[in-house]
Design brief:
Chain lengths: 130, 130, 130, 130
DNA sequence: GTGGTCTAGACCACA
DNA sequence: GTGGTCTAGACCACG
């Protein structure tokens, strides 16, 4: 279900955070669904349980998942977009940097817009009704 | 000319790499232009010359700038989009992750497309003839 | 395991790069093997950890080794000959220069071919199936 | 007549040394031929005269050329292969390193031998009768 | 003057 | 424990 790239610069725990969020977004994980336990996932992904733990903590901090003591961890029923304007400007900066990279990879405006469009479909990001 | 954020997680040598690439892209730095010397820039940005060095060497590896021995460093006359398909898939992965973030920030499809469009203008990324 | 010439004009970080590549080629280091940690090797070779770092990073850029975060650095499982035609012409140029030197050292065609043959044996370079 | 690569790691003055030696080897420059004056060559190659000077000094040190005061510089009538065994081992080391590179460029034994053979032809290196 | 290498010593994030 | 970043200060070859 999750694919981790051991090499590559992004930290493993962040990759997991990303993938859980993506799964929720796509509807693969529905609100209320139970996530695998830390230990189980550690075995399946052959990772250190501490790393899984760190991912879950980060996801909980972002209100994407919730932990019910003794029951397990579940996808939050209502997640709220946070919208801090600080986060927005960080996001915009990241996006700008990525677009610079795109140009140095030989992509022009049309190809970039097309790629963004395709990924939005794939991620099922549409109007704000989600 | 360059603005470095001393705190913040992204390494400052990478920030400089990004900003030089962005400046070249926008035309602020033209092919053939001389870059400030390592020492001079170190003084202006109040950072260590070694750090500037690291940035310049990375930029040279990426063929964005060239070093003429004893004369200084210059913006490359012809930089070639590299196009490695591996780099492309890394890029696509990064973009996907960023779009997931966008959604969690409350942006819908329309707002994302609009933002991308605006940034492309700002960076002067147009058709492939640039 | 590695022998570094502290004096002599070639940078010692490059010497280390060369020797690692040679060790991999000879099979002394097998794909998947763990390299000594930066700190440990620094102690063993009595050099600065930063210098070792530089070597390792260069080797990683060349895809000879891979870094697994927090676990260490390893010989790449699959390294691919890069084959850039630009690199090829640089190589041919270097080889030409070296052959000119050979002549000025008093070596004739036969002795040169013999020496090349001997070194190829020593390095275990054979048919393309290695 | 001489082609200098301003970028690239090998020092300009060494490139010139190399090319003069190569020209002598090929017979383009014959023993007794007059070399261009420092100033003239500096103009033709758009280089700093000091750099040309350095090249000529190095060539003279290697006994490839001779300077006749007030007359100019000439290709030596009899150059003697030096054969210092120290130089030989340096040469062998350089050759070994280059062969390692060859392998990482995807060349196998046959292709390397073929390339060496071609270059020897091109440089007119034959039996020891030169 | 330019960039390139090296050391010493410090701090940090990741697993 | 691992590698990655940064500073301070030094020395060198090149043009």
């Amino acid at each position: 279900m999750f694919k981790i790239d051991q090499r590559g610069s992004t930290p493993i725990y962040q990759q997991l955070v990303q993938q859980v969020k993506e799964a929720v977004l796509k509807g693969i994980l529905q609100p209320g669904d139970k996530l695998p336990s830390v230990r189980e996932l550690a075995v399946r992904l052959t990772m250190n349980p501490n790393t899984i733990q760190k991912s879950y903590q980060e996801l909980e901090r972002q209100r994407v998942i919730e932990t019910l003591r003794g029951r397990g961890t579940f996808v939050s029923l209502h997640y709220k977009p946070s919208k801090g304007k600080e986060k927005m400007s960080v996001f915009e900066e990241d996006l700008r940097n990525l677009l610079v990279e795109a140009h140095y990879l030989g992509l022009d405006r049309a190809k970039i817009m097309q790629l963004v469009g395709r990924l939005l479909e794939e991620l099922k990001i549409g109007e704000g009704d989600s």
